[in-house]
Design brief:
The chain is of the alpha/beta class. It has helices spanning about 1-15, 65-70, 85-95, 100, 125-130, 220-240, 270-290, 325, 340-345, 370-375, 395; strands at about 40-45, 75, 80, 135-140, 155-160, 205, 210-215, 245-250, 295-305, 345-350, 360, 365, 405-410, 420-425, 430-435. It has a ten-stranded mixed β-sheet with strand order 7-6-5-4-8-1-9-10-2-11, sandwiched between helices. A three-stranded antiparallel β-sheet has the order 13-14-15, with no helix packed on it. Strands 3-12 form a two-stranded parallel ribbon. Helix 2 crosses helix 7 (about 270-290) and helix 6 packs parallel to helix 7 (about 270-290). The longest helix is centred in the middle third of the chain and has 23 residues, at about 270-290.
Length: about 450
């Protein structure tokens, strides 16, 4: 009965959806609506460090496009993810609510049957109801079975992988720590795999509800994401409908994949090479926006959490936020922790003619603010009977306000204690940690 219900929903989606079953070249009943509504593009980088952007930390020169976008828009230096691991931070971005409210406090896995609770309303669902075309390209990681799939969470079009690209073997394993082998070429092949390698399932690539490749060829992933994003922007711009594109990149999560056909000097610095590839992809999207919908498109670049320090030279930089106190005690200030390097993320907002150029904001803000801000700029309504942890910061973007959060709560994301518990509090320039000693 459950399978039949899902099949019926799929059929209904294909019949009435604007973008969910055919891409591109779909029909919108032959009418065009020339709406003045704002378009939104949110680009989310995976495991990127605050210090990875040259404009933040001049020890790297691998992000010329992002640095240029910051010079043409607004850069935020005290911007934070809502959690310091993948699934909780993404759930908070799309709901405007911390994990203790939306129910997502830890990462989903290959074996997960659930996902973001179905009674949570996503940003895509609100915008779709407001007349937007919606697309999700990239890493979902909020549930891939049944109605948890992005095609049922407000997105007209989906192209991407259901979880992190180290959660399933591929034919291009890339740079990792520990190194994980590629998928066995024959099912009878047996070998021992290091801890953390997923060798029992091959990573799938979805287009809407269909797996179109398994295992994924990671070397072509960035190109495919860019192509699909450009096609969607093209289609939506020609249709006259406002659009929302959520582009969740594979970069900079391990394994790092080299796209060059032969190994050259970039192989001496695989992280830098991947950073340059990500930067070029962002530059391609921005160029498309500038050539098609420059005046009414808000482009927001940010990250899901800080770098994964366990990956050593294959991880990004936290910049100056090294956390000397815990470092002296063999601790980390990166992903999974509530120290600054774990959730302080590089963030840039660009909207030609609307957001003032070459402005650096020192206000304390969060990915929790994305939901209410986008809803406000879209002239849509927040879902009723919900408590939101973010706030509308649209006036900050337009230079009309310098008010950020006075406090930010940071939940435990795996470093210690119970997942989702509020472990740290930022209060202006101060930070308090809540630690309960173990009984002796």
């Amino acid at each position: 009965m459950g399978i039949l219900f899902v099949k019926v929903l799929v059929l209904v989606t294909c019949l009435v959806g604007l973008y969910s079953c055919h891409h591109p070249g779909i029909s919108l009943d032959g009418k065009e609506s020339h709406s003045p509504k704002t378009n939104f593009i949110i680009i989310l980088a995976d495991d990127i460090g605050w210090g990875d952007l040259g404009i933040n930390w001049d020890k790297r020169k691998d992000t010329p496009n992002l640095d240029k976008m910051a010079m043409e828009g607004m850069r935020f230096v005290d911007f934070h993810s809502a959690a310091s691991t993948c699934s909780p931070s993404r759930a908070s971005l799309l709901t405007g609510r911390l994990g203790i409210r939306n129910g997502v406090t830890h990462n989903f896995a290959v074996t997960s049957v659930g996902g973001l609770p179905l009674n949570e309303t996503t940003l895509a669902e609100v915008l779709k109801e407001a007349g937007y075309l919606t697309a999700m390209i990239g890493k979902w990681h909020l549930g891939h079975n049944g109605l948890h799939h992005p095609s049922f969470r407000g997105f007209d079009y989906y192209f991407g992988i259901p979880y992190s690209h180290d959660m399933g073997c591929t034919d291009t394993p890339g740079y990792n720590c520990p190194p994980c082998p590629a998928c066995p070429q024959h099912s009878t092949t047996t070998s021992s795999h290091p801890r953390g390698c997923y060798s029992n399932v091959a990573l799938p690539l979805f287009e809407n509800l269909t797996i179109i490749q398994q295992p994924v060829n990671l070397t072509s992933m960035a190109t495919k994401y860019a192509d699909k994003a450009v096609q969607f922007i093209d289609y939506a711009s020609r249709s006259g409908h406002p659009f929302f594109l959520y582009l969740a990149l594979t970069h900079m999560h391990v394994p790092l994949v080299m796209t060059e056909p032969t190994c050259n000097l970039s192989c001496q610095d695989p992280y830098g090479a991947n950073l340059r590839q990500m930067d070029a992809l962002v530059g391609q999207i921005k160029a498309k926006v500038d050539s098609t919908a420059r005046e009414n498109t808000f482009l927001w670049f940010t990250g899901d959490n800080g770098p994964w320090s366990e990956k050593c030279e294959f991880a990004g930089s936290v910049g100056p936020y090294t956390g000397m106190w815990q470092k002296e005690r063999d601790g980390s200030s990166a992903k999974q922790t509530t120290w600054e390097g774990g959730h302080r993320i590089p963030t840039i907002a660009y909207w030609a003619g609307k957001i003032p150029a070459n402005v650096t904001s020192h206000m304390m803000l969060s990915t929790l603010d994305i939901f209410p801000t986008v809803i406000s700029l879209a002239n849509a309504s927040l879902p009723p009977h919900r408590r939101f942890d973010g706030m509308d910061i649209s006036e900050v973007f337009f230079g009309q306000s310098n008010k950020g959060h006075e406090t930010l709560f940071h939940p435990n994301s795996g470093a210690a204690g119970k997942y989702g518990d509020l472990q740290a509090l930022r209060l202006n320039q101060y930070k308090a940690f809540y630690v309960t000693a173990e009984e002796q």
